[in-house]
């Protein structure tokens, strides 16, 4: 067996089955069940979907709904729309402006997560934060953003973080359209909006679906907002990945954490299957 | 319809100068071909009329208005692109009617008008299809229909036939000629195919290295090429060119080269001036003005037989001289030509072209 196969087996396949196995036990870090975990069947899953507590703060259902809102607002609306808008505007600006914009946007994307987390922390700080300084210089009251609007902070943070990716993909999608298509429309008298609606968007429809699914998957699994809010205050920014982390590695309830992990895997599987089937359709030459 | 004017237009891309100080006037209703090799600036010039490129300096007028910095959509022009630029996701009706759609015409009006234009171009039965389902020739006519569907001041063509095979190209060329006769449109047509330019243009602007070398009606370009470049570019096969020694003697220009025997040519003012400073000229004779010498002709050139190609209605006979220069004769006969190793080709003095050392034409007096 090739070394790569062994590595994949040790670090991917084994944990995969291990998580599924653990999700059916009451394994914990400390105490009796740490040494001798018992098989508990579906108890972990049933407790996650317990209708009494499902929607309560800090519970699985609350986190799932919060994550869904987060995905819709920051990924689908924010990243995809902003990325599309930036990519479209970049089509008609001089080359210099285009490359400068690309450099800045991509910089937001390639910086390490921890660096970005602290940069945003500094930006939002109540006493010395850049945002509050700007607010004050405009005569507006400062805010303790991470406490008052934690959800919107992580939404905007994620839009800022991910719009670059959408922009780059849409950019290359637009670039794949022969320039003469747009020039013919220019000569015919089309406005920028008409060109976008009638030519640009229909011709990159396939790419749009790809981008939407990819950023949905990534945003669904993202953990970076944890650096800003720790999932709080009072669970208000506890996304599903952060919830899993808390249950498994803070409450040390490995069984329950593993059960959440399995559910996340299933949700991701659905996304992946949709993505793959679309890819296969395009490979068959079906024009999207 | 309207005229088009280039006034001292230059265009550079970084270091590269695509068009150099070009001035050109295209009259109302004229069909002008910009002809030249690739990289000569002809497409750049066309795109500046369209507004797809902006001149580095100079100005461009359409009709009476200066459009140098206007957006393409504000110029009232039509353009046919080399790759046709048909939208793959729209059927032909929507493709053809797209310029009307952006003008806010109702769908009913649009499709009625598209049908009319498509019928004229004989693609009316294909309107429900998408571009991928029709042939190259039909795609070409679809893009033409899209250019014709709305009123324009100028019609621009960017090598519209170069993606067609030889047979379709001839057919489309004839059709464009017919259309021009019918509509009397002002058109600017870019091509590197001299036959296309000859067939379609009312005037041809031959371009080389960003400059217009000659701007004249096709027959003038053919009969009196201004430079050796034009002589070599127009005509198929191109004009035979041969460096010769010339001097004024016995009241005429006596011309000498190996294997060449010529009566003295009449002295023209320009030729006399050119011969004051040097004695090397270039002699040009078109292949169709050469025939196999029967003996007794006064103007002949001889060499070894290099090739004898029978094309059906005509034959191309090429001889090679000792200095490896070749001379091709185009002989109109459907008989097979049998030749010895040594060939002599004869021509008449009135078919001779002379160019000075810089390649500029030396006109005969009275030209």
TrEMBL record, chain A:
Transmembrane segments: 6-25, 37-56, 62-90, 102-123, 151-170, 203-220, 258-278
Subcellular localization: Cell membrane
PROSITE patterns, A to Z: ABC_TM1
A Pfam family this chain is assigned to: BPD_transp_1
SUPFAM superfamilies recorded: MetI-like
Membrane topology: Multi-pass membrane protein
ATP-binding found in the keyword field: no
Location, primary (coarse class): membrane
Keywords carried by this UniProt record: Cell membrane, Membrane, Transmembrane, Transmembrane helix, Transport
Domain spans labelled ABC transmembrane type-1: 65-275
Gene Ontology cellular component annotations, sorted alphabetically: plasma membrane
Top-level taxonomic group: Bacteria
GO biological process: transmembrane transport
Entry's family note: Belongs to the binding-protein-dependent transport system permease family.
Full protein name: Amino acid ABC transporter permease
From TrEMBL, chain B:
Listed GO biological process terms: carbohydrate transport
Coiled coil location: none
GO cellular component: ATP-binding cassette (ABC) transporter complex, substrate-binding subunit-containing
Transport found in the keyword field: yes
Gene3D superfamilies: 2.40.50.100, Nucleic acid-binding proteins, P-loop containing nucleotide triphosphate hydrolases
Domain ABC transporter: 4-234
Keyword vocabulary terms for this entry: ATP-binding, Cell membrane, Membrane, Nucleotide-binding, Translocase, Transport
The keyword ATP-binding belongs to this UniProt entry's keyword annotation: yes
Protein location: Cell inner membrane
CDD domains: ABC_MalK_N
Domain of life of the source: Bacteria
Molecular functions per Gene Ontology: ABC-type transporter activity; ATP binding; ATP hydrolysis activity
InterPro entries membership: AAA+_ATPase, ABC_transporter-like_ATP-bd, ABC_transpr_MalK-like, ABC_transpr_MalK/UgpC-like, Mo/tungstate-bd_C_term_dom, NA-bd_OB-fold, P-loop_NTPase, Transp-assoc_OB_typ2
A Pfam entry, by short name: ABC_tran
Membrane topology label: Peripheral membrane protein
UniProt cross-references to PANTHER family, sorted A to Z: MALTODEXTRIN IMPORT ATP-BINDING PROTEIN MSMX, TREHALOSE IMPORT ATP-BINDING PROTEIN SUGC
Entry similarity comment: Belongs to the ABC transporter superfamily.
The protein's name: ABC transporter ATP-binding protein
């Amino acid at each position: 067996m090739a070394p790569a196969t062994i590595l994949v087996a040790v670090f991917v396949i084994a944990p995969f089955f291990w998580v599924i196995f653990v999700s059916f036990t009451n394994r914990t870090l400390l105490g009796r069940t740490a040494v001798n975990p018992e098989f508990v069947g579906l108890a972990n899953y049933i407790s996650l979907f317990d209708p009494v507590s499902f929607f309560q703060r800090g519970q699985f259902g609350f986190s799932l709904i919060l994550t869904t809102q987060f995905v819709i607002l920051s990924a689908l609306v924010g990243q995809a729309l902003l990325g599309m808008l930036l990519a479209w505007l970049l089509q008609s600006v001089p080359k210099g402006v285009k490359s400068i914009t690309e450099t800045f946007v991509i910089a937001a994307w390639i910086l390490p997560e921890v660096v970005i987390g602290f940069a945003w922390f500094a930006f939002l700080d109540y006493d010395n934060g850049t945002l509050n300084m700007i607010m004050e210089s405009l005569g507006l009251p400062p805010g303790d953003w991470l406490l008052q609007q934690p959800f919107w902070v992580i939404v905007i943070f994620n839009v800022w973080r991910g719009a670059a990716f959408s922009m780059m993909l849409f950019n290359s999608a637009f670039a794949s359209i022969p320039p003469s298509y747009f020039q013919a429309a220019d000569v015919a008298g089309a406005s920028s909006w008409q060109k976008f609606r009638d030519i640009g968007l229909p011709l990159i429809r396939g790419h749009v679906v790809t981008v939407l699914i990819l950023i949905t998957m990534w945003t669904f699994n993202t953990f970076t907002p944890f650096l800003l809010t720790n999932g709080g205050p009072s669970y208000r920014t506890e996304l599903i990945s952060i919830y899993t982390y808390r249950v498994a590695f803070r409450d040390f309830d490995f069984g329950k954490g593993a059960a959440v992990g399995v559910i996340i895997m299933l949700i991701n599987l659905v996304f992946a299957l949709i993505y793959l089937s679309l890819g296969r359709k395009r490979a068959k030459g079906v024009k999207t | 319809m309207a005229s088009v004017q280039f006034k001292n237009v230059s265009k550079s891309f970084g270091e590269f100068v695509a068009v150099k100080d070009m001035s050109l006037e295209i009259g109302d209703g004229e069909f002008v071909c910009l002809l030249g090799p690739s990289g000569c600036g002809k497409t750049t010039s066309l795109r500046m009329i369209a507004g797809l490129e902006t001149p580095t300096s100079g100005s461009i007028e359409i009709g009476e208005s200066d459009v140098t910095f206007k957006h393409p959509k504000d110029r009232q022009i039509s353009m046919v692109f080399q790759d046709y630029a048909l939208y793959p996701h729209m059927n032909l009706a929507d493709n053809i009617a797209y310029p009307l759609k952006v003008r806010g015409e109702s769908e009913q009006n649009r499709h009625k008008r598209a049908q009319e234009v498509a019928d004229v171009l004989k693609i009316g039965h294909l309107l429900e299809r998408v571009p991928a389902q029709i042939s190259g020739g039909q795609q070409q006519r679809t893009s033409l229909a899209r250019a014709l569907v709305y009123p324009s001041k100028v019609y621009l063509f960017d090598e519209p036939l170069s993606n067609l095979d030889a047979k379709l190209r001839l057919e489309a060329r004839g059709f464009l000629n017919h259309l021009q006769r019918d509509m009397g449109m002002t058109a600017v047509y870019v091509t590197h195919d001299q036959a296309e330019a000859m067939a379609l243009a009312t005037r041809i602007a031959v371009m080389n290295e960003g400059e217009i070398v000659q701007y004249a009606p096709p027959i003038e370009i053919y009969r009196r090429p201004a430079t050796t470049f034009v002589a070599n570019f127009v005509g198929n096969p191109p004009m035979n060119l041969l460096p010769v020694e010339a001097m004024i003697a016995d009241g005429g220009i006596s011309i000498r080269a190996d294997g060449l025997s010529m009566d003295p040519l009449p002295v023209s003012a320009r030729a006399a001036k050119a011969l004051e400073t040097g004695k090397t000229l270039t002699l040009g004779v078109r292949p169709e003005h050469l025939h196999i010498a029967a003996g007794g002709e006064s103007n002949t050139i001889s060499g070894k037989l290099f090739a004898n190609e029978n094309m059906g209605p005509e034959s191309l006979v090429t001889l090679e001289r000792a200095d490896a220069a070749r001379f091709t004769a185009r002989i109109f006969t459907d008989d097979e030509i049998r030749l010895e190793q040594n060939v002599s080709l004869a021509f008449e003095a009135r078919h001779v072209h002379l160019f000075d050392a810089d390649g500029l034409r030396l006109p005969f007096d009275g030209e």
